[in-house]
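As a warm-up, study this chain.
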Amino acid sequence: MEILQYDYAESGLKRVYENEKWMVGIKNWKPANDIQNMDCLERHNATDELFILLAGKCTLLFANETAGGLKIEALPMKPMKVYNIPRTLWHNTVTMTDTKLILVEDVSTSSANSDVLMLDAEQIAKVKKLAGGV
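Now compare it with the structure written out below.
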């Protein structure tokens, strides 16, 4: 038996480890997560998701549905802290080209039990203002 090692240096997300219960991914910058291209939020309806910032800068966008509409907020991540995104919370990551995140979630998390919400022009402007400095 030996110790296995995983790495991923390309853009976007790669599931580097999976078992019957959970998945670990490495998420690097990709154009869709750049502040200039941010146009949506997602939520996972059945599972939580964890993020850990290893390098670079990342801002977690998150939003709650209220009677007055979607309340969008931003949280700059700190390296080596674990951030739990509870199931059903709208969220996305705004990253820079040198960003490297670890993502941990239930192996069953997929588009079948998740939603994507396209942001309107006003919401995109708010997101850019909130996370503009990433």
